[in-house]
Amino acid sequence: MRIKKQKDICEVKSVDKSRVKAIKKIMLSDRDVNGLSETFSVLADPTRIKIIYALSKEELCVCNVASILGISISAVSHQLRILRNMRLVKFRKEAKRVYYSLDDRHINRLFDQGLKHVRE
Amino acid sequence: MRIKKQKDICEVKSVDKSRVKAIKKIMLSDRDVNGLSETFSVLADPTRIKIIYALSKEELCVCNVASILGISISAVSHQLRILRNMRLVKFRKEAKRVYYSLDDRHINRLFDQGLKHVRE
DNA sequence: TTGACATTTGTTCAATTGCTCAAATATAAT
DNA sequence: ATTATATTTGAGCAATTGAACAAATGTCAA
After folding, report:
1. pLDDT for A4
2. What are phi and psi of A101, to 5 degrees?
3. Which of A31, A40, B53, B63 can pair with B44 through a Cys bridge, CB separation 3.0 to 4.6 Å?
């Protein structure tokens, strides 16, 4: 095979300059892009999906979530921390238990839209 | 610190059995869970988000996408393959160029819902 | 206090992922 | 055929991530 040095960066002459410029101008802000990718990342994990779904039905303690999903309490707690950091769930402590519930109406809508998509 | 063997699995007696059972019964199917996590995974990457956004505005060739995002053609092509596999984009060849466009109305809606969420 | 239960947290490890580079393929022009 | 342009693909690598396990914290009851 011949050796070719490839620039791998789009040559100016081969680019439709005005088209590229126009779209660059209306491109999403870094803030939007990061927000979107963070949001979708949280929803991109099977365990978290199940947790969110369960909590969308009812407030539950960590132990019950673990029971419902059939995974360890530790694993649930780790995932709940992620959801907490993203402010998707809120919690209240009652004696030894900690009860979690959904804390973001938007997420429910995103979730439902996603379900509609996969079930279409 | 005391050594305790911890089962890390919810003790039956501490679980609200009927509550757990009820939610287990209406839990999402594996199919739904996998579909959701795959769908959200595709949307969870900044590069793919930008590509999807750009393509939502206009049909574009690989080279122009690379130019708009300011990343290598190879990187774009790799990501486009993922979007192709998920059937989120379609393409048509014209001479040496390959033009991509969005091929899923649902994704646009999911995307917009996501934007609404992060901008709230 | 001691012990049991509920949850959280830190560490380690394996798997996944996105990128780069090099190479291959495809198409058209010389 | 050779060259140039456009895109795809495969390998290798660094960074991220989810799960498992151990240990720590917190709360209540005996």
Report:
1. 40
2. -150, 165
3. A40
